[in-house]
Amino acid sequence: MKIMNSGKVLLGVLAGVAAGALLGILFAPSKGSRTRKRILKKGEDYADGLKEKFDTVIAGISGKIEKVKEDVSEFNEQLHTRSEEVKAELKTAEV
Fold first, then answer.
1. Is 78 exposed, middle or buried (0-12, 13-18, 19+ CB in 10 A)?
2. Neighbouring residues of 33: CB distance < 8 A, sequence distance ≥ 6
3. What residues have CB less than 8 Å from 4, skipping those under 6 apart?
4. pLDDT, tens digit, for every residue of 22-51?
5. What is the value of pTM for the model shown?
6. How many Å apart are CA 58 and CA 62, to the nearest integer?
7. Is 39 exposed, middle or buried (0-12, 13-18, 19+ CB in 10 A)?
8. What DSSP state is assigned to residue 34?
9. Phi-psi region of 79 (alpha: psi -120 to 50; beta: other; left: phi over 0)
């Protein structure tokens, strides 16, 4: 849950920064063509940064999911082993 909240905060911050940069460029005294190029460049920069952050968050989540899968598999093996031990003990107790 903490990763999801951090991701939302990060997206909000990036969106705010992008909106501020866009407004700054729009109100700066420049030719229209130059302003459009600057907006496009900033948009590409922010999109690249956002993609990197998103990939990092996804990689972290994927790593944690894999760890949980391994832990569950290990627990299942231990449970199965213990179950077999208990069955063997019951058989020897019956004799």
1. exposed
2. none
3. none
4. 777 777 776 777 777 877 888 888 888 888
5. 0.47
6. 6
7. middle
8. H
9. alpha
What's the token pair of residue 24?
């700054």
- DSSP for 41-94? HHHHHHHHHHHHHHHHHHHHHHHHHHHHHHHHHHHHHHHHHHHHHHHHHHHHHH
Sign of CA dihedral 56, 61, 67, 70: negative
Angle between helices 32-94 and 2-27 (to 10 degrees): 180
Residue 32 tokens, joined: 């229209």
Cβ within 8 Å of residue 26, ≥6 positions away: 35, 39
